[in-house]
Design a protein that fits this description.
Rossmann fold; single chain; 368 residues; 13 strands; 50% helix; globular; alpha/beta; seven-stranded parallel beta sheet; 2 domains; six-stranded parallel beta sheet
Amino acid sequence: MSEILISGYYGFQNSGDDSLLLAIIQDIKREIPNAEIVVLSFNPEETTRIYGVRAVNRLNLAGILREMRRASLLISGGGTLIQDGTSSKSLWYYLAVIELARMCGVRVMLYANGIGPVYRNINRKKTKKILNKIEAITVRDSMSLGELARLGVTKPEICATADPAFSLSTPNGNMGEAVLKRYGVDMTKKRLCISVRKWKTITPEWEKAIAEAIDETAEKYDMYPVFFPMQIKKDYEISARIAGMLKRPSAVLNEVFSADSALSVMSNMDLCIGMRLHTLIYSVSQCVPVIGLVYDPKIQGFLEYIGQKYYLPLEQSDKKTLVSMTDEVMSRYNELLPEMDKTKSFLACKARENAVIAGGLFKKGRRR
């Protein structure tokens, strides 16, 4: 039986990336029922247990080579894998997996990726060289299309689709409601979701300003603040610190959620202020109005792609500006909901196009 390998940031207990993997697996199985899926994961045992697919340690070269000799297609993605803002080491890893697949005769697709930024000249040259040899690239926003053009990547089939998470089914909200009640959230009030993460430019003054803005917004609109860490190890500490500055009661969720559970929790929110991309994606997928805090170009790229104007650069997210933006969102709340419903339906259709393209490549078999 032919295999499909999936490479990405998997097995790190990051809710956003876990939702990507679930969506990719579900869409691929729907499009290619006979394919055996193998995931390159930081935690293969956990990945196998949760998703019911075989998994190989992402650093086990011998194991990866063994799977590549049997595979017809490598899916690289989703997520923002092709970038060196985090580190060049991360970029080199994903490019090396792609190049190894090609050397083994495996077709390669970048699957709903965010692209860039790629800063270093040597990395830009390497990225251009390797990506121009693969079969197909789909991206999740227009900014990524522009970055590919600037890199000089022109030879594969390239198209803009949507993040795979938009193809996930609408969850049962009761599960999320039970979670929130367990954390003491007052369900008689509207819920304000906050997603923040540790970042190099964040200062104590910024945290204080965010806390004051949350307090004022919660007071004005009778909201209960709920901090929703997407990756506990990186997000919980700053979430708890800001929550501790609030005058009003709040909750900080402190567990690793499955994609279904995370979406169910989000379906119980009324407004989301978020740094994490997949918090914003979860929000849009559940028709919850969003305000983005842009720490990385991918946040702005996503929001612009879906026609969403409510976002602030991190350094401009002072109390006055953030409160003013939440006021505008709340004043337009009933207008925004039908717009978001249309956006959600459009993005769900675009997300499913990724698997259709992957299916076409898989059916061609290995490269000769």
